[in-house]
Design brief:
By secondary structure, the chain is of the alpha+beta class. The chain is built from 16 helices and 14 strands. It has two domains: 182 residues, FAS1 domain, CATH 2.30.180; 139 residues, FAS1 domain, CATH 2.30.180.
């Protein structure tokens, strides 16, 4: 029996099959097409969402239409948008005219990779409230158990889950998810040099540096399912907790196995690597601030959570210590850790 369950999210991406929780027939509409079709139904729905996507940066429509995309969208109902406008004291016209606001809010409703309702609900078991990263940098959603076994995202309830699209999953929610707009504006005012390499390219470059690093990590990525390399190259944004070569050597010794043993087990490798990746881009400063005195849990691409704690001057990811931070990539950020994170049995 394998030590670790195969990564649910990557099963979706690899097989291109619809989960048994969905309708048995494969979906034929993209997320964008589902939204458009809903506006033409009787009764109509998602009319405000469609208007918002149309008024926002074209990248949102491109993403929701892209057949190669794999995203999860939390889609507010028309009633949810109208209630949000009233709470903000703004008209629909005012919001639709503010592209910066629209871009931030829409990005906060989109999560990279595929997340079905069962996985999200399971993560909230035992009163846990894990975070889930979004396309909006430094901004995460908080998941919690709702009434009668339902799921809450921030203060919104998921009222209909698992609408399968050809390029992702849609969950319908009864509230609009509003990010910390002051923090978003502050981020927009920061001047940062744009990265030029993907996460995968940074790992490759590190193996050929004067003092090579991440050589075992690179070997693991190469030996794992090809979707791992694809996601670290073109997917995301993601935050990766990258173990050093010394960390991998120590883990192999502790497990009593050789590198060859691990590298020969594609399923095991894929699960371990996915456990080191969380959706969204989170800087070290954001991680420390979010951890505070009590810490937090975050959903990984393995569908299970990691714990984040601040212990004195150290930031701990499970039992690993962060030893290097904020290596930015075109599709996320890397933080270096001194131990390999092993998923729960």
């Amino acid at each position: 029996m394998r030590k670790f369950a195969f990564l649910l999210v990557l099963v979706f991406a690899l097989s291109a099959l619809v989960s048994p929780a969905f309708a048995q027939e494969a979906p034929t509409l993209s997320i964008a097409e589902i939204v458009v079709a809903s506006t033409e139904a009787d009764p109509a729905e998602f009319t405000v969402l469609l208007a918002a996507v149309g008024a926002a940066n074209p990248v949102f429509l491109e993403t929701l239409s892209d057949p190669e995309a794999s995203v999860t969208v939390f889609a507010p109902t028309d009633a949810a948008f109208l209630a949000a406008f009233e709470a903000l004291g703004l008209s629909a016209e005012e919001v639709l005219a503010d592209q910066a606001l629209l871009d931030a809010v829409l990005a906060y409703h989109v999560v990279p990779s595929l997340w079905d309702g069962a996985t999200l609900t399971a993560a909230t078991a035992e009163e846990a409230t894990p975070i889930l990263g979004t396309l909006l940098a430094e901004q995460a959603l908080v998941l919690a158990a709702g009434m009668e076994g339902g799921l809450m995202v921030n203060e919104a309830n998921v009222v209909s889950a698992d609408i399968a699209a050809t390029n992702g999953i849609v969950h319908v929610i009864d509230g609009v998810l509003v990010p910390d707009l002051e923090a978003v504006m502050a981020m927009g005012e920061m001047e940062m040099e744009a990265p030029t390499q993907s996460i995968a390219e940074i790992v490759v470059a590190s193996t050929t540096a004067a003092t090579p690093e991440f050589t075992i990590l690179l070997a693991a990525v190469a030996a794992a399912d090809p979707i791992v390399l694809e996601e670290l190259t073109n997917g995301g944004p993601y935050t990766v907790f990258a173990p050093t070569d010394a960390a991998f050597a120590a883990a192999l010794e502790a497990l009593g196995v050789t590198a060859e043993d691990i590298l020969a087990d594609t399923e095991l490798l894929t699960g371990i690597l996915a456990y080191h990746v969380i959706p969204g881009t989170f800087s070290a400063a954001t991680v420390v601030a979010a951890a505070g005195e009590t810490g937090f849990t975050a959903l990984t691409l393995a569908g299970t959570t990691i714990s984040v704690m601040v212990d004195g001057e150290s930031v701990m990811i499970n039992e690993a210590t962060v030893v290097g931070t904020d290596v930015y990539a075109t599709n996320g950020v890397i933080h270096v850790i001194d131990s390999v994170l092993l998923p729960p049995m």
